[in-house]
Amino acid sequence: MTPRFVAIGTLALLAVTGCAHPAIVAATPAAAPPARAAEAQDSSPKADLRLVPAEAYVRTYLQLFGGLDPITAQQRARGGDGGALFDTWEDYLAALGFPDYRLDLPRATQTNGLMMAAFERLGDALCDRAIEHDLKGKTPVPVSERLIFAFDVPKGPVVDLEAFTPRFDVLHRTFLSYPARLAPTDRTRSFFELYTAAVARHAAKNAAKSRFTPAEDGWAVVCYGLVRHPEFHLY
Amino acid sequence: MSSDHRASSSASRRAFLKLVGGGAALAATPFWRTRSALAAEPALETEFFIFIHASGGWDVTLWADPRNEKRGIIDPATTDNTDTSHLHKWVDAPHDDDVKGFALVRPAGSNIVFGPGIGDLAEMYDRLCIINGLAMNTVSHPDGTAFSATGRHLSGGRVPGASVDTVLASELGPRQTFPLVSVQFPSSYTGDGLDRRAVPLRVGQIGSISKSLTRAGQYDTEADRDAVTALLAREATQVAATSSYTDVLQGMSVQYDGLRRMLAENLQDVFEANRLKKEHPELDYKARFAGGGAVNAAFAIEALKRNVVRCVSFAMGGFDTHAANYRFQAEVQQEFFEMIGTMVKQLDRTPHPTLVGKKLSDHTHILVVSDFCRTPQINMAGGRDHYPNNSALVISPRFKGNQTFGKSDPDQVLPARARKFQDGERAIAPPDLLATFVSAFGISPRAHFRDGEVVPELLAHA
Predict the structure, then answer these.
(1) Which residue in chain A has the smallest CA separation from B236?
(2) ipTM of the predicted structure?
(3) Residues of B in contact with A44 (CB under 8 A)
């Protein structure tokens, strides 16, 4: 093959490839692949419920008590009336799961029977003192200044579920932070039954003496149930 | 736990007992099938347990593995380094000029040779099972403490396994009002094979439980509180039914039920120190070193007598004697062991709460451990430091009394080969002791302990 022939061939090839108009391919949207199966997104929690740290529990407790410091809350809870509602924080720290670095006791990260007993002891004190503050003052406390029972509390017992529901909802939002109607159980009805049973017990002729009226006892019992509720302690 | 699971667990336990009886290998039982099945076997709910931790690391040459001669690197306890004035069992023996050593303690009929630290507990030799030469492989307090109680070394500072008291509470005590009360004992609840009711009640002192059980009587009534707790137990169960993870909520549900039982039984006085002292004057609450521990011992007796606790675990300190306080190591031991002896005698006098004609001591099993032992040499400060050997004590009708198992070498007090294990000839170690302890009650060690091999020589009925 002569050099001349090679040069002519190269020029011809360049003319064909380099100088021709570029091919334009029109863009067309790709079709979606055909669905083979549909599956809902799994949005379930991927970890078990955990116990609220003891510090968070105490902070919440103090907040519910009116934003007091621990010593003042302790004094108010103990009171000067011989009610024996509360001892000292020191008496409950271990039961609440606080670590004790003096004794090398670790933090309790799971509930136990003793912790349940301490929750009851502290929860009862909170609710009983809140009833005294909110409902039994010498002068009526406006709803906006109440600690827990921030709703219209009738003098007598609430007799039907319809009247109970909005009042219970206030307490439910206070302790569990969401509307009672969204609760996964028939909670409003259960607590109404708890309320009516307590009212009946305290209104009975041979009822044990109490510092509260039957209606107040009913609301106190509802408060106990919410401040000790599993949803109050777990997240 | 589902009833199906309980049934399969129960069958598995029976299979396990057969295997042990026939000398077959433990490994034949799948560990996941041996989870607690106690509800189905009430016979085992008659057993009680006391676990005691001698906190700080005891000097075994003063009680279980006595050395009274200078040999190898061993500096024995002498009148030069030990205050002997209050020791009941210290009898001077020739040592070096004016300095006296001690005579070994061996009551008539005893196969066990003790040091003077054992005190009057030596007289109960026929009930004591001593394990010597326990290989600790650690001289760290937290690690030794965890290893003694769980058979596992710490992992990144965490306890990777359940402690022996938690295992027994889970297997034999979930239906008890208090499956496990732990006063400064290294109890740990780790792993998924445990009953949640057995989460240890860990407290710094017994009195702190009493305050949490006190209830005011001027506002609500017992019936009010009980109704609330019953409602909450139901709520926890119902919420669990709609949850992805149910374990914690179901655990709370059973704990609510447990609280109802606790309050119904008026248990405040079981947990009140002054009432315990009044109820059990036989214990020495004014003892120089064991006075505080005596309250725990009184609690153990009272709680078992009333059948409200399956396992009581507690610790007593004062053993970590690095300096001149070593002079009192023997006295600390004497008070400690004599407190245990008094407790056993009281259990002898106490009828079993549910078995007519039986003594409580016939069904109470005591395991006494420590972090590790102390160096054979006396250091420059006159004390002894940490040493990776150990001893343990078992007082249980299911263990052979009047025997010592395992040994340490004569010159260095380090663990010596005790027997042939599946992994070869070696010293006994805490996992072996714990495996043997739980196996004595028909519990497969493999269900809860990663390591350890049953040592039939320790058991009364292997």
Answers:
(1) A230
(2) 0.82
(3) 244
